[in-house]
Design goal:
single chain, alpha/beta, Metallo-beta-lactamase, Chain A, Arc Repressor Mutant, subunit A, seven-stranded mixed beta sheet, 6 helices, 15 strands, about 20% strand, elongated
Length: about 300
């Protein structure tokens, strides 16, 4: 098995235009491309007539306007949030002010265990609290559709995927993306939880994934197993570079991520930090002083 999955880097979209991706799923992409959002945030619409919206997106009035215009004559009855990063949940407030649709999600943004207050990727949305809190196994039912909640902490502590029973599909938010690996960054990101969540998905039989960034993932089982293998490879790399005498994350990253775009170096450092936290908690690595991204590290 390869130590990484085959990523899907081709994805065409026209901003503000609703497209059909299946008989009962539609998608509209917000114009917020970037190093962490790829071509932009995809808002999914499930059903027809009385519909659910999954990840309404960033606080962009033009995106909300386009969504409502595309759904003219229909009613949004549910807003489901996968997690509370600023490119996923803030538009829920705008939609609620205009049409009153209730929000559903695991809970507010988490604080994490290490280096609290550090902004990650697009940053957290501290203003979001769902009208209806969901937990693993809950089912949200609408007019002709039903979505089961699959708790997948790791990218954030409040990350949910939604299993669409009628099409055996899974809306994966940022937990699994086809175009790239997922950033797992403390304080709220947790590598051990992320790997456990991937293993849980690998035991399911979903036929297709719909991530919030990029193209759908067909035959997702091997893809998820590839993600797990890739993370275990990174863990082995960390142990190897510590054996070679490189004992800070800043020293580790250039050799582990050769040719990386400089804008992504801080994210890579934080991902390695997440792995280091996991290794420390496993008793394989120790930090000199309090554990932080700048700590000197050594193997036990």
């Amino acid at each position: 098995m390869s130590d990484r999955p085959r990523f899907i880097t081709e994805f065409d979209c026209e901003y503000g235009v609703m497209v059909d991706v299946s008989p009962t799923i539609r998608r509209i992409v917000a114009q917020n491309p970037g190093p962490f959002t790829f071509k932009g945030t995809a808002t999914y619409v499930v059903g027809h007539g009385k519909v659910a919206v999954i990840d309404p997106g960033p606080d962009l009035p033009a995106h909300v306007d386009a969504l409502l215009e595309a759904l003219d004559g229909e009613e949004i009855t549910h807003q489901l949030i996968t997690h509370t990063h600023k490119d996923h949940s803030p538009a829920a407030q705008r939609l609620q002010q205009r049409i009153g649709a209730s929000t559903y999600g695991f809970g507010p943004h988490g604080a994490g265990k290490y280096e609290k207050g550090v902004e990650v990727e697009e940053g957290g949305d501290p203003d979001f609290t769902p009208d209806h809190a969901l937990i693993h196994g809950d089912r949200v039912v609408g007019d002709g559709w039903s979505l089961d909640c699959v708790y997948t902490p790791g990218h954030t502590s409040n990350h949910l995927c939604y299993a669409y029973r009628e099409e055996n599909a899974l809306f994966t938010g940022d937990h699994v993306m086809g175009w790239s690996t997922t950033v797992v960054s403390p304080p709220d990101g947790d590598m051990r939880e992320y790997l456990d969540s991937l293993r849980h998905l690998s035991e399911r039989n979903d036929q297709i994934y719909y991530p919030t960034h990029g193209a759908p993932i067909e035959n997702p089982g091997p893809f998820v197993r590839g993600l797990i293998a890739h993370r275990k490879m990174r863990e082995r790399q960390i142990i190897s570079v510590l054996e070679a005498g490189e004992n800070t994350i800043r020293d580790m990253v250039p050799g582990m991520y050769k040719g990386l775009d400089p804008i992504l170096i801080p994210a890579a450092q934080r991902s390695v930090f997440a792995h280091v936290i996991d290794l420390v908690e496993q008793g394989k690595v120790v930090s000199e002083g309090d554990l932080a991204i700048g700590s000197r590290l050594r193997l036990l």
